[in-house]
Specification:
The complex is a heterodimer of chains A (272) and B (342). Chain A has 272 residues and is mainly α. Chain A has one domain. Chain A contains eleven helices and four strands. In chain A, helix 7 crosses helix 8. Chain A is globular and about 55 Å long. The two termini of chain A are 27 Å apart. The C terminus of chain A is likely disordered. Chain B is mainly alpha-helical and 342 residues long. Chain B has a domain of 235 residues. Chain B is 74% helix and 2% strand. A two-stranded antiparallel sheet of chain B has the order 1-2. In chain B, a hairpin with a 2-residue loop joins strand 1 and strand 2. The longest helix of chain B has 32 residues. The model of chain B has no long low-confidence stretch (mean pLDDT 84). The chains are: A mainly alpha (272), B mainly alpha (342).
Chain lengths: 272, 342
């Protein structure tokens, strides 16, 4: 039995017993998938790209807060009420979250990634903290109390309010992301990314613009984190700054490291 | 805002900046000698402050037991290494794992220090050997690992030490009596004696460090190790001992900073992390390599913190940590070459 069939069998087994699992287990599995999504980005960043980030939780927060703001704030909902149906608001939130994360990650990456290795991890701790305090102090984001009453996702008229209904979507997103990352690593671009870790001078001499690829991988990892944040916000239906503080950011990195930061699949059984 | 408030805030900023400056010095020292980004530096500050508070109330600070435990573990570890055929420098091991812990036990349990000065000395004896002991147990076995792995060890160690701090000192914060109750009136601005003590001690420590690194043979050996480890070893400098020494200095500076801030702010078990990180922001201004620029950076961080707590107190931490972004941007403008990571 190859690893591929084993993985497929595990996924199949999980899918088959999903309706009969107790509620608690369903929630835990949903969280595992959410954390794995962030950790997958970190594996790309740390294990394969050779960069370290303690600040992924901040990108998760960007994703979660964007959708929370779009779906609940009076300013956004009243402005968008005539343009889109309420059921589509979370998707606008996703778009805003990804856009914001892209801009922030690209800007941060452009500044820090050109410098040598140890600046990036320190810098990520600093802006991880900075964003955490920012979310805790902005009144229109609810401050430390956070934002309540996020709507549930609806897909094709089907409401995904309970973890049991949303879980399959989270897992589908995770598996799709892993599959896409796997394919990416097998491509020409992916080989360039893998060359980043083992020595930048060698990669540069082969015509790989390392600074550019480092920024790309960094943005990719940030986008995965934002996606996880969006799913988290609609799973929890409540957002506050606590789950995005620097300790959680450190935990995300530890998940990736414990799972063996060089392999994409390893992370599925690392978290929790 | 009038000039009175500006002067007051400026004074506040200088006092905070002095403490961050000490942090930055310790971090730059440890990083340049051992390539360890010593995140637990902040915890040593909290340990120093809280041990002082415990001594003040007549209790035995639990850091003593931590010191004894670490010393015993180090002895066992070194004996195990010696048995496996590694060369062990027993002289330095005895200093850190026997002499200092014994002295600390004697001071805390035997002498029950009552005066503020003696208590301060006791805290220094308690905290300073923690540095080299932590180095020997956590970092030295990995001395050849990459900066990244050492950093991850640091983060893990930070988690362990914060947890132990909560166990030792509880969740309540502590404050200690000021070293000086005096108040001065300089050009219409009230200056407390304690802030003069902070700035004075910081300046003295910086000058001592300067003399140590510029004039003494040990300091020069440390600098040589920081510059080129292999070269230093070829010149007969025992580079393994330089790790001990730089961690001892860092822990000493941490303990002194803890003593200095304990009368100014209430210190909790997890206060140290933020103080240490602000030291990092200052150290990064200097590129983790330059002492004078790191000190300037520390003053900048202190002033920024003081003034932002006046104008936008809710966003104080946001502004201080966001400072790192323009700093790095400015640094990235000056670095054009591609660096290979070890």
């Amino acid at each position: 039995m190859t690893r591929r069939t084993l993985t497929l069998l595990c996924i199949l087994a999980l899918a088959l017993c999903w309706p009969w699992l107790p509620d608690y287990t369903v929630t835990v599995f949903s969280y595992i998938a959410l954390y794995s999504l962030v950790a997958a980005g970190l594996v790309m960043l740390t294990g394969i790209g050779g960069m370290t980030s303690f600040g992924q939780a901040a990108f998760v927060a960007l994703g979660a807060y964007s959708t929370a703001w779009v779906c609940t704030s009076p300013v956004a909902t009243s402005a968008l009420a005539e343009v889109v149906a309420p059921a589509l608001l979370p998707w606008l939130g996703l778009a805003l979250g990804l856009l914001l994360t892209f801009v922030v990650a690209w800007a941060l990456g452009a500044i820090t990634l050109k410098l040598s290795g140890h600046y990036l991890p320190l810098c990520t701790i600093a802006w991880g903290l900075s964003l955490y305090y920012l979310f805790g102090n902005l009144d229109f984001l609810g401050g430390q109390t956070g934002i309540t009453g996020l709507p549930a996702l609806t897909v094709g008229g089907l409401s995904l309010a309970s973890p049991r209904a949303l879980g399959p979507l989270i897992w589908a997103v995770l598996l799709l992301a892993l599959w896409a990352l796997h394919n990416l690593l097998d491509s020409r671009e992916g080989r360039a990314v893998r060359a980043l870790k083992s020595g930048r001078v060698m990669a540069e001499s082969m015509g790989v613009d390392t600074a550019r690829y480092r920024t790309k991988v960094f943005v990719l990892a940030a986008l995965l984190a934002a996606l996880s944040g969006w799913l988290y916000a609609h799973l929890q239906r409540f957002v506050n700054p606590t789950p995005f503080n620097i300790n959680i950011g450190i935990e995300y990195l530890f998940m990736a490291v414990v799972g063996g930061s060089g392999h994409l699949w390893a992370l599925c059984w690392a978290p929790r | 805002m009038d000039s009175q408030i500006a002067l007051l805030l400026g004074q506040d900023g200088i006092v905070n900046g002095a403490v961050y400056g000490l942090m930055a010095l310790a971090l730059v020292l440890v990083f340049s000698v051992t390539r360890v980004i010593f995140i637990p530096q902040g915890e040593l500050v909290a340990y120093g402050a809280l041990s002082m508070a415990a001594l003040n109330t007549g209790k035995v600070p639990a850091t003593l037991w931590l010191l004894v435990a670490l010393a015993a573990t180090t002895l066992v570890f070194e004996a195990w290494r010696w048995k496996r055929g590694a060369t062990v420098d027993w002289k330095s091991t005895a200093v850190w794992a026997l002499v200092f812990p014994a002295l600390a036990c004697l001071l805390v349990l035997g002498l029950h220090p009552a005066s503020l000065a003696l208590q301060a000395v006791t805290v220094l004896v308690l905290i300073a050997p923690l540095g080299p002991l932590i180095y020997r147990l956590a970092y030295r076995p990995l001395a050849d690992a990459s900066v990244l792995i050492l950093l991850i060890v640091s983060v893990a160690l930070h988690g362990v030490l914060v947890g132990l701090g909560l166990l030792f000192f509880g969740a309540e914060g502590s404050r200690t009596p000021a070293f000086s109750e005096a108040r001065f009136d300089i050009a219409g601005v009230a200056v407390s004696g304690q802030s003069l003590v902070v700035v004075g001690v910081a300046i003295v420590l910086v000058l001592l460090m300067f003399v140590f690194f510029e004039r003494s043979i040990v300091g020069k050996a440390l600098r040589a190790t920081a510059m080129n480890r292999v070269g230093a070893r070829l010149m007969g400098i025992p580079t393994d001992l330089s790790g001990d020494l730089s961690f001892a200095l860092a822990a000493l500076i941490g303990a002194v900073s803890g003593l200095l801030i304990a009368p100014i702010t209430t210190v909790y078990y997890d206060t140290g992390f933020l103080i240490g990180l602000k030291g990092f922001v200052a150290a990064i201004v200097g590129g983790l390599g330059s002492y004078p620029i790191a000190l300037l950076g520390a003053l900048l961080v202190g002033q920024l913190e003081a003034f932002s707590s006046f104008w936008a107190s809710a966003f104080k931490e946001v502004l201080v940590f966001a400072l790192i972004i323009p700093v790095l941007w400015w640094r990235s403008l000056n670095s054009r070459h591609v660096e290979d990571e070890e």
